[in-house]
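Thread: quick sanity check before group meeting

JM: Hey all, I'm pulling together slides for Thursday and realized we never actually wrote out the predicted structure for the chain we discussed last week. Dropping the sequence here so it's in one place. If anyone has concerns about the input, flag it before I start.
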Amino acid sequence: VDSAVDLDEGGDEATSRSPSTLPAFLQSLVGKPRAQTLPPEVYQGIFKRIGLGDHKAVLGMVIAKIVHNLRAWGDDHEVIRRTLVLLATLVQGGVGSPAGPMLLQLDATQELLRQHTGAALPFVEVPGNERFRTTLHLTLCQMLLMSPDDSEASGAFQGFMRPLLEALRSLHDADARGELFTDANRRALIGVCRYPPARARA
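JM (edit): ok, ran it. Output follows.
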């Protein structure tokens, strides 16, 4: 996700989206491991031995932590920036092996796709976080568009669009009542218009 690269203004390798900078254990889960890393089976054996479960369970924990950061640290720009870069890096996966389809199988990812508005993720409404909000939505759109024919992606896309459709219906109803021109509706309309068009990522 290009905007995730832009977020990493300091060039900090620990937060770059490049798959080669993922921690070795994450790289082994979401893509082809680098030559100098241990085989995926080694990490998966370690995870099971310490009670973390299989690779999907571990990825689910990582996504759950990402969601927690987005919910609890909305006013800390550095935490949000690093969290979004990590999410974009996970979606990119390994070289030639995007992890989006795998992430779509996780309950935590499905929840994030269904609940990405200010009600669930307060950081998107914090002043100064507009760029972070756009990055989140670009990353989610990219994940959905990696496998457009996949049933998981199809169902997830419908869930992703539901909050937007609800916002538009609410604006339509407000207009019918002659109550469209309020600050709350203005913010809602701006929020909908900030979502990246799907065709831009196709």
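AS: nice. DSSP finds ten helices and no strands in the chain. The mean pLDDT is 75.
JM: adding both to the slides.
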